[in-house]
Design a protein that fits this description.
alpha/beta, 2 domains, disordered C terminus, globular, TIM Barrel
């Protein structure tokens, strides 16, 4: 395992007493408070946070770092909502570089992976009034007919709230319909920051924090796991981040239905918040670390490498992150359009394995709910799988 450096915290005279008390609680497995979470952001230096987060990470997951083989389908980027931070969506009056995939185009994307060892398809996009609940239910059913073994992770709470409202059904009814047609889980998008004041400034017209949480709680009650996200590095303050994580931690206590927590970095390219400077790599790493320390009932923390870049994703593995997402296959435009580090988000399985090994970690291919698909620690691609398509 990577050395945690945890012992050095207590011998370092530069680390304050209150931070050492937090470290003691974390080591004992005690939950830290809201105020202590804010204090980590305010006073925690990078080395201290990294040592503590890595301790938690290795206590939960050893030296394993997970990834999966997946691809994205984004049916449209036309959207009825106007999120100030979004570089991806287009409105219906000024379509510009908008797209609307036909059903056949979507099925062709799925067929592209025939015979390839993909385990997950991730379906998210803009909120389009003509692409409603029953449209997507039928779409998922047909995707499952083409690829019965694939896990369908689909639709943010923002998309689901609109679908259910337009179809005049409850969240439970809408999710039950989607589940009956083959949807397996929910991604974590649309959470942004739960603080209602911040939300009123950056995404006033879409689903509320309460609705986001209710949709995920309902999904969990139906046996549909989900992910959780937080958009950070814009106009929020440290207390807003901890408030956001605290609401997720509380719901996880109740349902246990979240697979992973994914901090999402605000990118400022070509959106209505372009005047706001992006967070530094150091702040990104600090944020991963605090997330890992605070979110004690989440088994996993993921760094979404297409957004932060491969180099930062590699560093994040020493700051609490045990998952770096998947192969993606250049099929997502959401973050590339916002100025993400990786303009062509595609990594082959050998590349992902190398990235993980080069940083002293043990690479595990997982499925969506973290069952082990394959252990790649001692895998020789050339000798054992010379014809591996590994997504190129």
């Amino acid at each position: 395992m990577v050395q945690t450096g945890i012992e050095s915290i207590f011998s370092d005279s530069n680390i304050s007493k209150d931070l050492k008390i937090i470290a003691e609680k974390v080591i004992k497995g005690d939950r830290i408070s809201f105020e202590e979470g804010v204090l980590l952001y305010e006073k925690g230096e990078l080395g201290y946070l990294g040592a503590l987060a890595n301790f938690v990470r290795e206590k939960k997951n050893g030296n394993y770092t997970y990834f999966n083989r997946n691809f994205h389908i984004e049916p449209t980027n036309l959207c009825v909502f106007d999120c100030k931070f979004c570089s991806y969506s287009r409105n219906f009056k000024q379509k510009g570089d908008a797209w609307e995939l036909s059903e056949q185009e979507i099925y062709d994307l799925v067929k592209k992976y025939d015979g390839k060892p993909i385990t997950e398809v991730h379906i998210v996009g803009g909120v389009h009034p003509k692409m409603g609940l029953h449209y997507f239910a039928s779409l998922i059913k047909n995707i499952k007919a083409l690829r019965p073994d694939i896990h369908v992770k689909a639709f943010t709470a923002v998309e689901l709230e609109y679908m259910c409202r337009k179809a005049k059904v409850s969240f439970k009814e809408g999710l039950s319909i989607l589940k009956a047609h083959g949807q397996d889980s929910l991604p974590g998008g649309g959470a942004e920051i739960f603080d209602e004041g911040i939300r009123a400034e950056i995404c006033a017209d879409k689903c509320s924090s309460a609705e986001w949480l209710e949709i995920h709680e309902t999904a969990h009650s139906l046996g549909m796991p989900s992910n959780a996200t937080m958009l950070y590095g814009h106009i929020e303050k440290f207390e807003h981040r901890i408030d956001h994580m605290d609401r997720l931690r509380t719901l996880q206590d109740k349902t246990g239905g979240f697979n992973t927590f994914i901090p999402l970095k605000f990118r400022n390219k070509e959106n209505q918040m372009s005047h706001i400077a992006e967070s530094s790599v150091i702040e990104d790493l600090r944020n991963y670390a605090v997330s890992r320390i605070y979110m004690d009932n989440f088994n996993h923390v993921k760094a979404y490498w297409p957004m932060i870049g491969r180099n930062t994703a590699a560093l994040s593995m020493a700051f609490g992150v045990d998952d770096i997402d998947g192969t993606i296959d250049d099929s997502t435009k959401i973050y590339a359009m916002a100025g993400a580090e990786d303009k062509s988000p595609s990594l082959s399985t050998p590349q992902l394995v190398k990235l993980i090994k080069d940083n002293g970690r043990h690479p595990i291919e997982r499925d969506t709910v973290y069952n082990t698909v394959k252990d790649y620690m001692n895998y020789d691609f050339e000798a054992e799988e010379p014809a591996l398509d590994s997504i190129k």
